[in-house]
């Protein structure tokens, strides 16, 4: 499948830097991508919810290992993923087809 995810900061496609899976369990996947152009990092949440499979991109200052520490520590729950989705309902980032 073509990788059509793109940077939410500068809009460059993540053609060279594939998002890396940070956390994956129970229909919930979290990806971390670094833009090859502007070096900004984006967290991409994908989750199976009552809305279907949703994906939301969020710009972050966290490095990949910091994100992993957060998730391993249980700091981010399914509810929070859904909250992010609710908050960014109108987001059209085009990240849903990356995997
Ligand atoms: Zn960028």
* Molecular shape: globular
Number of helices, counting only DSSP H or I runs of 4 residues or more:
2
Distance between the termini: 7 Å
Major sheet details = 4 strands, antiparallel
Helix content: 10-25%
> In terms of structural class, how would the helical and strand content be classed?
alpha+beta
- Count of extended strands: 4
Strand content: 25-35%
Mean pLDDT across residues: 73
Poorly predicted regions are: none
Query: Which compounds are bound in this model?
Result: zinc ion
Physical arrangement of strands within the biggest beta sheet: 1-2-3-4
How are helices and strands ordered from N to C?
Answer: EEEEHH
The value of Rg in angstroms is 13 Å
Account of the protein in words:
By secondary structure, the chain is an alpha+beta fold. It has a domain at 20-87. Helix content is 19%, strand content 31%. The protein contains two helices and four strands, in the order E-E-E-E-H-H. The protein has helices at 64-72, 78-87; strands at 20-25, 28-34, 41-49, 52-60. Strands 1-2-3-4 form a four-stranded antiparallel sheet. Strand 1 (20-25) and strand 2 (28-34) form a beta hairpin. The termini are close together. The chain binds zinc ion (ZN). Zinc ion is lined by residues 7, 9-10, 12, 35, 37-38, 40.
């Amino acid at each position: 499948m073509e990788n059509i995810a793109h940077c939410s900061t500068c809009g460059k496609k993540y053609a060279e830097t594939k998002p890396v899976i940070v956390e994956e369990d129970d229909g919930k996947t979290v990806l971390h991508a670094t833009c090859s152009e502007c070096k900004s990092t984006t967290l991409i949440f994908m989750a199976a919810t009552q809305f279907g499979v949703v994906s939301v991109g969020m710009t972050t200052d966290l490095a990949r290992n910091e994100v992993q520490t957060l998730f391993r520590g249980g700091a981010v729950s399914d509810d929070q993923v859904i909250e992010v989705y609710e908050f960014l309902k109108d987001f059209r980032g085009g990240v849903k087809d990356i995997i």
